[in-house]
Specification:
685 residues, mainly beta, five-stranded mixed beta sheet, 40 strands, globular
């Protein structure tokens, strides 16, 4: 599309069921590119309302609570008013949303009757929804908060009124707080508020045969988290001044706690601190609920009964659960089809002539020799090898070994798999434009101060083919992994007079034909000829050589250890150090017979990234004061442990700009208490 005086227009349509409505604007002006994702809003008059019976199910003849949540098509909440009608058009009750599109109402469902809810949004758009169908049998938990207690009842259909013995289990984050036999279900159970720890507690109702029939989630926010006290040496600081910050962590009684915390210090003028979520919202709230909860910090900022009511609505909607009691009674249970994965692992299959082989020993070995593991294949030929917590880019060799010599084993490794996750193209929130502009300006200034040049964007360049000098002759490495190559064309243009002179063409290599030794620096070099380790190459004829490759680092180590004859030749034993460099020679007779070793496979799985230390300047000498300090993140320290007195400290220097700094302290104590504190530091000119 071309613009006329900076303006243009065009039209297009989205599919009716399109969930992501995002347009990419890709513009070019005087060879300067501009790209921006633009969210296209859904129609304002389109919305949906979901209804959640308390305890999982509506029961005929019983007055029960129904929570609801109204949302626009883009996933944001909206307020609605509604009226419930029966099948004859009689009005039963009215309702309206109270908190972020959520609300609740009470109603009694009569046997054989169906109900509809007619909802109207703020723009006058009306939609009709069917209420969930009621059941003739079952149980439903009902929980109601008082000022300082929780009252729990069991609802039953009018036709089922029995005094069955039931069981109740209460747990929070997997820790059971109470189990009891509930014989007289007509009488409610009452629990004091301080009976529950902070967070989401699960009330689970079971029959006397331990079959779960109903669940209700409740949220409690008690004052039982760690107390955090932060101190600095003064009320305000000049620029480029050291700040000493002391942290003390205690429990409710003032007793010191040992814990581990992380600390971040950011400039408020350029970095908007995220107030929508923190460690409290993550551990106490969102980790126990399904779906996305926009701005979970909202529920913690509310006080008193409004906070209790808002959180209880959230528990009844996004914390809603329902058990299929008929399926449970039939013992039609679902079981996981995958193993519980504690870390990353290497898995695969061993076959012999396309048939799985049971009882084959499969071993895994890291190139550095600091990790080994073994496993046996099952009746399907499957095996699983745990790699532990080794860092990223660790190279391994996986080998299948059979006791029967006549078996032609084939090792097949599974591909890398990741959990499915859908991420929206753009964030739902819109950043503060003024704060963002200041941040961008300071980032550009800092870049120019450090690099001294301004980057100009050039039009897109398309690379049609990589320029690789050598050919891929080996099964164990690619030409792109080599450090230096002497190709067949190089040998034709400048034929070597001897193998000694050929080796000395390689940068860093010193070959001595008299001592028959080859070194790189002061370390010996390994030799490989046609994918086989050898002790000496000085007897080779230069006329028979097609290509010479120099391998270094992990490519060299991986090749040597992966070779099936490594122990016969004396190279690559576990007691030997990994080679720094390997010279791989491909002869003309060997160029056409590069073969794969079917029962040995190299693998470099995605591991854990090594931590990188955060850079923090120190202005102890005049030489360090010459460069402007434009930091936006002033300090970041992810691992601080308090001592036996609950104390810890950290220090940093202020930057050049007068501002206020926000200090965020988050962590956990040894006994599981959550640590969270926000503080501010004033920086003056």
């Amino acid at each position: 599309v071309k613009c006329d005086e900076g303006l243009s227009n065009f039209s297009f349509e989205f599919p009716h069921d399109q969930k992501q409505r995002v347009m990419l604007l890709d513009a070019t002006y005087e060879n300067n590119p501009f790209r921006q994702y633009i969210r296209i809003p859904f129609p304002d008059d389109d919305f949906d309302v979901s209804f959640y019976p308390e305890g999982g199910s509506l029961l005929y003849g019983t007055t029960g609570r129904i929570a609801f949540k109204a949302m626009q098509r883009d996933g944001t909440e909206m307020d609605v008013n509604g009226v419930v009608y029966d099948s004859r058009g009689n009005e039963i009750t009215r309702f309206r949303s109270d908190v972020r599109g959520m609300g609740q109402f009470m109603m009694k469902q009569e046997p054989g009757e169906t109900y509809d809810a007619v909802c109207t949004n703020s723009k006058g758009k009306t939609r009709r929804f069917k209420l969930p169908a009621a059941q003739n049998e079952g149980y439903a938990l009902s929980a109601t908060w008082g000022k300082d207690h929780l009252m729990v009842n069991v609802l039953q259909p009018g036709s089922q009124k029995t005094n069955d013995t039931l069981c109740m289990i209460i747990h929070t984050r997997g820790i059971v707080h109470d189990t009891r036999i509930w014989e007289n279900t007509s009488e409610p159970l009452v629990f004091p508020k301080d009976f529950f720890p902070s967070g989401v507690s699960h009330l689970l109702l079971l029959t006397k045969d331990m079959i779960p029939v109903s669940e209700r989630l409740v949220f409690v926010h008690n004052d039982d988290q760690a107390k955090v006290e932060g101190k600095t040496g003064r009320d305000s600081y000049p620029v480029r001044t050291p700040v000493e910050y002391t942290v003390r962590i205690t429990d409710e009684a003032g007793e010191p706690l040992i814990g581990n915390i992380s600390v971040s210090v950011t400039d408020d003028h350029e970095v908007a601190v995220d107030t929508t979520m923190n460690i409290l919202t993550s551990l106490l709230l969102t980790s126990d609920l399904r779906g996305n909860i926009p701005d979970p910090g909202y529920y913690f900022r509310k006080k008193g009964q409004l906070s209790v009511y808002s959180l209880d609505l959230l528990m009844q909607t996004q914390g809603w659960r329902r058990y299929d009691t008929e399926r449970i009674i039939r013992n039609d249970l679902m079981y996981p089809d995958t193993l519980l994965q504690m870390g990353y692992a290497v898995s695969g299959t061993v076959r012999n002539r396309n048939r799985p082989v049971e009882g084959v020993l499969v071993s895994i070995l890291s190139i550095q020799g600091n990790y080994t593991g073994t496993a046996y294949t099952d009746h399907n030929g499957r095996f699983y090898l745990s790699n532990g917590d080794l860092p990223d880019s660790t190279a391994f060799i996986v080998q299948a070994m059979s006791q029967e010599r006549n078996q032609n084993l084939e090792l097949i490794l599974d591909g890398v798999s990741y959990p499915e996750r859908k991420i929206p193209v753009v964030a739902s929130g819109i950043p503060d434009r003024e704060v963002l502009d200041k941040y961008v300006d300071k980032a550009e200034q800092q870049y120019m101060e450090e690099h001294g040049i301004r980057i100009s964007h050039i039009p897109e360049v398309t690379i049609t083919a990589p320029k690789i000098k050598g050919k891929d002759y080996s099964f164990f490495y690619k030409a792109r992994d080599t450090q230096f190559v002497i190709s067949e064309d190089d040998l034709k243009r400048n034929p070597p007079v001897s193998i000694n002179s050929l080796l000395n063409r390689i940068p860093g290599i010193f070959a001595d034909v008299n001592s028959r030794s080859v070194t790189y620096g002061h370390r010996p070099v390994y030799f490989i000829v046609d994918d086989r380790l050898v002790d000496d190459v000085f007897d080779l004829s230069p006329a028979d050589i097609a290509q010479v490759d120099l391998l270094s680092g992990s490519a060299a180590a991986l090749f040597v250890v992966s070779h099936p004859k490594r122990y016969d030749s004396g190279y690559g034993d576990l007691g030997q150090p990994s080679p720094s460099h390997v010279i791989s020679i491909t002869t003309k007779r060997g160029t056409s017979r590069v073969k794969e070793t079917p029962y040995i496979k190299p693998v470099i799985p995605l591991g854990f990234q090594r931590p990188v230390e955060f850079y923090a300047p120190k202005y102890d000498t005049p030489a360090q004061n010459t460069r402007p300090d434009s930091r936006t993140t002033i300090h970041w320290q992810p691992n601080i442990t308090t001592d036996e007195y609950g104390k810890a400290g950290f220090s940093f220097y202020t930057a050049d700009t007068p501002s206020t700094y926000t200090v965020v302290i988050e962590g956990m104590t040894e006994d599981g208490k959550t640590v969270y504190k926000r503080d501010q530091i004033v920086v003056e000119n």
